[in-house]
């Protein structure tokens, strides 16, 4: 074969791969190259071609996979239905249809407010049907509507219905219900008081008449600690009057108990000099009077800010919220506070116990002998007596049955000639003895007998007897010539007013009968004038509703259900972590004596236990069940503040106390270890284990712990040398055993170690007894040194006896003796010798 043919054949074979495909990368082969080089180049080209082929196949495969995935996703997007969301439950009525409340249960807030604005005053409850507070307030809200539906329009709006208008507007509200009263004009007034019907009624009545029109400030100071008085022009377009009216409503919103009285005195547009009159705003308090600066702007915000900034009271009702409230902390953190738990009846004409606290507080805080404060104090005393007589009067009036008013036409002015109900009380003496205190008002005949018995000798009694009151008909004269069916006639208006007064009085009596102090007419009283400035233990005096906030008293160990008139007095000193409970009867003298003894540190600290109070609010474990270890079970005694000191003060007994709290998450695990150690050492009679709930039991300050869990070791007969388990050391069983053994005296420590050797499963019992022998030898060495230093024969003899028993114990330990009675005998002898030596 010629060389030309050979080259041509070679070019043809190298230009194709093994599969016959064209190889573009390896087609330029040099013709002058040797055969061996040509073969090597052909091999490299073949490898390169194979790799390129596989890469191309993989790229094509990836493209196909991506295309298939995209097609699948597109297909699923078109075929699959949207995510299924459950429909919200259908709205349902929260209030019955036959109630006096318009229930907008579908959340139509715009319609509800529009309808509310059409009435003079509307009271609207915004609620969530599932909320427990709303379910509780529902019944109380219905009672208010039933009582006041003729004067106030009532409505309710469901603000939790998904997709509703109210839900959209109030999506960020975190507490329900919200109660807002809407006057016909202006913004709404939110109610922030207790969710109780009588308190809501008082709020609405105050909203109807937010201020009184009088200039008699002293009469208002007899009932309130603070009086806001305004003198201004009240014409048709008086901007100052409108501003003050709105300020009064805002003040009512911040003061749910209506402790701040508001008075208005109007005058003409021009003063006596012919100049335009300037509005005057004054703030009257128990020790000073302040005036609003004339140059300041007369706006709602400025007036409200000035009033709230300068108000200070000697005593006040407080209403803590359901969450952690700063309202109570403001009185407890500056210093000690006296809390007077007494029923709060907002519909009653008076609260005598709170007025008694005001009278005592005025005397207590009158440091400089201010004559104004002294006059207010006397005025409060006379107001209390006047309210007592008013209570007798309204009780007599409302006890009458089949009461009718006759009408007759007369040219004279209409007048009231009710002799038996008015003249009788005008002639009644205000100086009664203690026996005429009425705590419960019965029928009219019993009341009249009490009045006849207690009337002063100088009093001129009316000729009418009490039995004639029920049948006596009231006759009024009028000059108004109207039809008898006129509901707006003076007689009918008077009759309606008296019916409303009696209805309010009966509701107040049903909620809580009004009671008075037994020392209302007593002139011999304890003197504490200016005591607040004589020491650094000045008290803040506050009142709390014992019917609504009784759980606060329960936390202090006071069971108000067992207290007379559900009232109690407690002094709480937050900084000293102590409190004091008044055990005497609630009178002025006893209250002043209680304050005096606290001021001079003469009161014993109360150590009441919550576990002794029957409570429906906080769970507590029973403490009267005996701890008995039966059928392989073991338990620890649960102690309270009533028997805590008795438990740790037992003669020759070492006590280990475990402090825990149900709010402590680590206490459960620690209590199991504490229980195991107590079970190991249970055969030792002179070591006792106990536990106590530190949250529910109030202990002396030296035995009060700040953190939980805490373990306290009290040595025998040495309470003052008590020791606390180190905070930085983990509470494990070995650490706890080491802590106990390190604090025991020699004989008791040796007995505890021997008990652990006998009751604990050690891998090597020899090591345990070796420790016993070393401990015994160390004790004997110390006793020998003491024997050498003894100066009397009796001391040497006692020391030798103790050494003898320790030597016998060492012998038994060397032998690994299981003779339990012998070991126990020597320990008992050592115990007797130790007690004899201490005597």
From TrEMBL:
Matching InterPro entries: Thioredoxin-like_sf, Thioredoxin_dom-contain_11, Thioredoxin_domain
Domain of life: Eukaryota
Coiled coil start-end: none
Compositionally biased spans, kind Polar residues: 1-17, 26-36
Pfam families referenced in this protein's UniProt entry, alphabetically: Thioredoxin
Region (Disordered): 1-36
Parts of the chain that traverse the membrane: 61-78
Domain (Thioredoxin) ranges: 118-205, 638-721
Gene3D superfamilies: Glutaredoxin (3.40.30.10)
Keywords of this entry: Membrane, Transmembrane, Transmembrane helix
Protein's recorded name: Thioredoxin domain-containing protein
């Amino acid at each position: 074969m010629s060389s030309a043919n050979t080259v041509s054949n070679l070019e043809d074979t190298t230009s194709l791969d093994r599969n016959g495909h064209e190889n573009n990368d390896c087609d330029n082969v040099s013709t002058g190259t040797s055969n061996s080089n040509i073969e090597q180049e052909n091999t490299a080209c073949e490898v390169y071609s194979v790799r390129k082929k596989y890469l191309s196949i993989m790229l094509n495969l990836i493209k196909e996979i991506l295309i298939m995935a995209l097609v699948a996703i597109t297909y699923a997007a078109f075929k699959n239905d949207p995510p299924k969301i459950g429909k919200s439950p259908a709205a349902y009525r929260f209030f019955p249809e036959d109630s006096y409340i318009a229930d907008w249960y579908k959340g139509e807030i715009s319609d509800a407010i529009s309808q509310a604005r059409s009435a003079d005053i509307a009271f609207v409850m915004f609620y969530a049907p599932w909320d427990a507070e709303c379910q509780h307030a529902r019944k109380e809200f219905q009672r208010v509507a039933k009582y006041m539906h003729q004067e106030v329009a009532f409505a309710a709006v469901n603000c939790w219905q998904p997709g509703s208008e109210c839900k959209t507007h109030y999506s960020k509200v975190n507490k329900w219900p919200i109660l807002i009263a809407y006057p016909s004009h202006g913004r709404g007034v939110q109610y922030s008081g207790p969710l109780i019907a009588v308190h809501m009624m008082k709020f609405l009545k105050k909203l109807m008449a937010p201020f009184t029109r009088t200039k008699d400030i002293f009469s208002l100071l007899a009932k309130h600690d603070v009086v806001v008085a305004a003198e201004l022009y009240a014409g048709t377009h008086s901007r100052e009057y409108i501003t003050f009216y709105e300020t009064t409503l805002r003040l009512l919103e911040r003061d749910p108990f209506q402790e701040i009285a508001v008075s208005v005195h109007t005058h003409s547009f021009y003063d006596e000099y012919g100049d335009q009159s300037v509005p005057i705003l004054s703030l009257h308090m128990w020790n000073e009077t302040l005036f609003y600066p004339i140059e300041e702007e007369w706006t709602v915000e400025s007036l409200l800010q000035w009033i709230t900034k300068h108000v200070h009271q000697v005593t006040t009702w407080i209403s803590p919220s359901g969450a952690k409230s700063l309202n109570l902390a403001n009185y407890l953190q500056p210093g000690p506070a006296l809390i007077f738990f007494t029923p709060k009846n907002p519909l009653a004409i008076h609260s005598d116990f709170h007025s008694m606290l005001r009278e005592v507080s005025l005397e207590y805080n009158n440091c400089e002998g201010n004559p104004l404060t002294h006059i207010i104090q006397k005025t409060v005393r006379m107001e209390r007596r006047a309210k007592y007589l008013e209570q007798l009067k309204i009780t007599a009036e409302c006890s009458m049955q089949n009461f009718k008013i006759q009408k007759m036409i007369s040219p004279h002015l209409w007048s009231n000639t009710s002799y038996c109900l008015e003249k009788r009380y005008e002639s009644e003496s205000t100086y009664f003895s203690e026996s005429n205190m009425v705590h419960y008002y019965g029928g009219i005949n019993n009341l009249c007998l009490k009045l006849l018995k207690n009337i002063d000798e100088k009093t001129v009694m009316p000729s009418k007897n009490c039995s004639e009151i029920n049948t006596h008909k009231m006759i009024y004269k009028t000059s108004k010539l109207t039809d008898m069916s006129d509901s707006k006639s003076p007689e009918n208006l008077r009759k309606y007013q008296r019916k409303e007064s009696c209805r309010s009085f009966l509701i107040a009596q049903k909620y809580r009968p009004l009671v008075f102090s037994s020392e209302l007419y007593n002139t011999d009283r304890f003197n504490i004038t200016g005591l607040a400035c004589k020491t650094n233990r000045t008290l803040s005096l506050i009142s709390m509703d014992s019917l609504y906030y009784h759980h606060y008293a329960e936390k202090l160990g006071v069971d108000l259900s067992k207290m007379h008139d559900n009232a109690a007095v407690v002094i709480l000193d937050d900084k000293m972590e102590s409190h004091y409970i008044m055990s005497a009867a609630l009178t002025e003298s006893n209250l002043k004596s209680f304050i005096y003894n606290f001021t001079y540190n003469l009161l014993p600290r109360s150590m009441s236990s919550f576990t002794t109070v029957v409570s429906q609010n906080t769970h507590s474990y029973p403490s009267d069940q005996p701890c008995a270890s039966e059928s392989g079970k073991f338990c620890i005694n649960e102690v309270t503040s009533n028997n805590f000191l008795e438990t740790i003060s037992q003669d020759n007994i070492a006590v280990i106390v475990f402090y825990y709290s149900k709010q402590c998450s680590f206490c459960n695990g620690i209590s199991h270890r504490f229980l195991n150690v107590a079970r190991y050492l249970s055969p030792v009679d002179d070591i006792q284990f106990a536990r106590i709930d530190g949250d529910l039991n109030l202990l002396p300050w030296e035995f009060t712990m700040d953190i939980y869990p805490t373990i306290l070791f009290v040595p025998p007969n040495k309470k003052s040398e008590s020791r606390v388990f180190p905070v930085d050391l983990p509470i494990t069983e070995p650490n706890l055993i080491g802590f106990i053994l390190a604090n025991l005296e020699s004989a008791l420590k040796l007995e505890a170690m021997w008990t652990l050797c006998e009751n604990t499963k050690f891998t090597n019992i020899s090591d345990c007894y070796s420790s016993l022998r070393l401990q015994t030898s160390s004790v004997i060495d110390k006793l020998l040194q003491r024997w050498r230093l003894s100066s009397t024969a009796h001391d040497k003899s006692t020391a030798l006896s103790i050494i003898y028993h320790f030597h016998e114990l060492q012998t038994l330990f060397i032998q690994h003796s299981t003779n339990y009675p012998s070991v126990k005998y020597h320990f008992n002898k050592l115990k007797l010798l130790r007690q004899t030596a201490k005597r």
